TrEMBL record:
One Pfam family, short name: MerR_1
Transmembrane segments: none
HTH merR-type domain span: 4-73
Superkingdom, natural source: Bacteria
InterPro entries from the UniProt entry: DNA-bd_dom_put_sf (IPR009061), MerR-type_HTH_dom (IPR000551), MerR_fam (IPR047057)
Keywords assigned by UniProt, alphabetized: DNA-binding, Repressor, Transcription, Transcription regulation
UniProt KW DNA-binding keyword: yes
Protein name as it appears in the record: MerR family transcriptional regulator
UniProt xrefs under SUPFAM superfamilies: Putative DNA-binding domain
Length: 268
DNA sequence: CTTCTCACA
DNA sequence: TGTGAGCA
């Protein structure tokens, strides 16, 4: 009985494919101890160790190229360096995955809180919001693909972040499309404070106008005044859950320093 | 059972 | 960076 083993025995022992062992040979990192008369590759104990190392390094994220290079002319310090670089990459990947997980949780949470519901009004306290303005358009013109494309390189991940439509005060003719500023160079700033918020979902753009009116009506019969721009936030990713509805939040800053509409009426 | 080669993801 | 098929 020979001391060496065939490629399939080695493959079974190391739980890899025969193919992969031959691939490592082609790439110059693992060679048989010798070739048998029948042209079969034969492997000894040294090759078993060598293969273990290769597999470990592959698992650690080193390329076969890099392994080859190290076997050719690598020092122990080089190996330490290679593994360090590898661990940095893995940690970067962990960060990426954490971000991704966070994004999905955010979507899930948002859906649970504001999924499909009748319009709900509430006054909420908001942190200052910095938006980076994107472009301006008319109230009536619908957003189309070309308008998006013409804006050139905007933020990546367009629809992961909510699109904010900021309507100019008083007349709602002009709309400013914004996204949340990632860095601090936003150009539209909404101050912290109390905001009236209404969340709703619609099936047709037509319904938007009604909600604006309802929103205004709600403001008029409340003990405060709505001030500043109306902000329509399109929760674009909530549309993931339903095939045919769009989700929005309508916001306006609350001003309690002025009397409400009814009181103003009295004073006249 | 092994080898090699080629195409493919 | 491997895999799968086909052939000898």
């Amino acid at each position: 009985m020979k001391k060496e083993i065939s490629i399939s025995e080695l493959a079974k022992l190391m739980r890899v494919s025969v193919h992969q062992i031959r691939y490592f040979e082609e790439k110059g990192v693992l060679f048989p101890a010798y070739i048998d008369e029948n042209q079969y590759r034969m492997y000894g104990i040294d090759e078993i160790y060598r293969l273990s190392h290769i597999l470990l390094l592959r698992k650690a994220g080193l390329s076969v190229q890099a392994i080859r290079h190290w076997y050719d002319e690598g020092t122990p310090d080089d190996m330490q360096q290679l593994l360090l670089e590898s661990v940095y990459q893995i940690e970067a990947e962990l960060d990426r995955l954490r971000d991704l997980s966070g994004l999905i949780h955010k979507v899930l949470n948002d859906y649970e809180r504001f999924g499909d519901r009748a319009p709900s009004f509430q006054v909420i306290q908001r942190e200052p919001l910095v938006l980076s303005s994107w472009f301006e358009t008319d109230f009536n013109t619908e957003l189309d693909a070309r308008m998006l494309a013409q804006q050139g390189d905007t933020q990546p991940g367009l629809f992961e972040t909510d699109i904010h439509y900021v309507y100019e005060e008083e007349c709602l003719r002009r709309v400013r499309l914004c996204t949340k500023a990632i860095d601090m160079d936003g150009d539209v700033v909404l101050p912290a404070g109390e905001y009236l918020s209404c969340r709703f979902s619609i099936h047709d753009e037509e319904e938007l106008k009604q909600h604006f009116d309802q929103f205004q009506a709600f403001g008029d019969q409340s003990p405060f005044v709505l001030t500043g721009p109306r902000i329509l936030v399109e929760k674009s990713y909530l549309s993931l859950f339903t095939r045919e509805s769009l989700h929005y939040e309508l916001l306006a800053r609350v001003d309690r320093s002025v009397g409400n509409a009814a009181e103003r009426e009295e004073k006249r």
